[in-house]
Amino acid sequence: MSSPNSETLAIQQAIVQGASGDELAALPLPESYRAAFVKRDEVAMFEGLESNDKDPRKSLHIGEVALPDLAPDEVYLAVMASSINFNTVWTSIFEPLPTFGFLDRLARESEWAARHKRDEHIIGSDASGVVLRVGSAVRNWKPGDRVTVHCNHVDDQDPSAHDDSMLATNQRIWGFETNFGGLADISVVKANQLMPKPSHLTWEESSVNALCNSTSYRMLVSDNGARMKQGDSVLIWGATGGIGGYGVQYVLNGGGTPIGVVSSPERAALLNDLGCEAVIDRSAEGYSFWKDEHTQDESEWRRFGGRIRELIGEDPDIVFEHPGRSTMGASIFAVRRGGTVVTCAATSGYMVEFDNRHFWMKLKRLLSSHFANYAESWAANRLIDQGRIQPLLSKVYTLEETGEAARAVHRNEIEGKAGVLCLSPSEGLGIDDPEKRERIGEHKITTFQRHAR
Ligand code: NAP
Predict the structure, then answer these.
(1) What's the CA-to-centroid distance between 344 and ligand 1, angstroms?
(2) Is the per-residue pLDDT at 117 higher than 90?
């Protein structure tokens, strides 16, 4: 059982007791800190195993790692809580590639970037916490600021980052393609990854949103995404999952009709509670889009499309796609003439296949999307802060249990998001504005927690 070291414990106590920014800045920083990481010399440990048999509990270690120096544009963050993302799963099962290659390539970019090349990869792409120190070039943030972190890691001096920073040639996902991620007691982030912590949420509720919420915002709402309009119908795969659960909320907020696909009656009930009336339980209805490894079944696409028409009376304007190989053929088939399939992932396999005749003859569009730029992340965080989008926290783990939590996400056992307590000593801490919380409504904020298994 590992716990924070003595200097980190002093930081934790100071934060919990409401220390000022100056008091926090005066506390000594530890030489090392507790973190979740995978090891370079273990990347071959699952060779020969099926993906489902690769167990993150074996590859994810919790232990002390050396605190890196701070670059001028970075801050040290005391991480109060973090979350499991699907990229935590990818890193911990070394699929589709071990992530050390990302760190080694980053290390070649500059003197500061060289710090990222280590024999341990400290992972995690979400965090809520308190700023401890700022680098000499940081202007807008100071010790004591309570923040959340988005994972867009970009060198903003590179001109390719200036318009849409997701198009930057050096764009990376913090804690996946960089080191020093959020599943730790302390993290190192660029100052332009920081956003104000929503004042009505706990540390763990604040920590689960940035990656998935911003991704769904770009996919559906942003000009860079599917540009959803009022009245649009949107088919959402994995509608109670990490990105799907935010997707459903964006469609409802935007005056559209979500059609949510899930795989159990409990998830269907959760969707109804969220306000999504058109629900397809893919397990109960037994869709099987692939006859065998090489052949898709068009009659199953038709049955699926027919079910959508039965539910909402039309073909969807947009399909929110991420399962990839297992569903892309059906998604392209089901979207309406002229409609858009927007994809950001391929959980079930990245070599996707669809019938191009249905695609071109009906003038459909396939749009790629990946995380979110600074402006999109900020806009998505603002909606959480306004109480218009609710956090999807359903289950909370300790940092020690990171492997367990990643395994549960890998096995599709979690609805919404799994939060991870890092320095926060217990659940329920960190609410700065209880009146605002009451105004927005405890019941609404905790929908996924109430439905948690
Ligand atoms: P998640 O919380 O595990 O949710 C995924 C949902 O997809 C599950 O709840 C499951 O719902 C559904 N699903 C899984 N396999 C499926 C299949 N074969 N066919 C149909 N539905 C399936 O994961 P997440 O956080 O939402 O992430 C989903 C994917 O998006 C991951 O691959 C992740 O890496 C990726 N992602 C990409 C970005 C980006 O920026 N590009 C950002 C976030 C996530 P049911 O079983 O209930 O149907």
Answers:
(1) 10
(2) yes
Model pTM above 0.90 = yes
What digits encode the pLDDT tens for the residues 239-255?
A: 999 999 999 999 999 99
Spatial distance between the Cα atoms of 298 and 355, rounded to a whole number of angstroms: 9
pLDDT of 9 reads 96
User: Alpha carbon of 231 to those of 280, 316, 319, 401: distances in Å?
Assistant: 20, 11, 14, 43
Let me know whether 237 and 194 are in one domain: no
> If you take atom 9 of ligand 1, which residue's CA is the nearest one?
241
| Domain region containing 262 | 226-368
- Nearest atom in ligand 1 to the alpha carbon of residue 416 is 2
Q: Whose CA is nearest to atom 46 of ligand 1?
A: 263
| Per-residue tokens: 289 | 């889009």
Total number of domains in the chain: 2
Query: Last residue of a domain, which of 316, 341, 368?
Result: 368
Question: pLDDT tens digit string along 225-234?
Answer: 999 999 999 9
Domain harbouring 287, CATH code: 3.40.50.720
Is 453 a residue whose pLDDT tops 80? no
Task: Give 366's Cβ-side CA count (13 Å radius).
Answer: 21
State in Å: Cα 342 to ligand 1 middle: 14
Closest ligand 1 atom to the C-alpha of 414? 2
Distances, alpha carbon 401 to alpha carbons 11, 40, 263, 397, 419, in Å: 22, 21, 26, 6, 11
How confident is the model over 165-191, as a mean pLDDT?
97
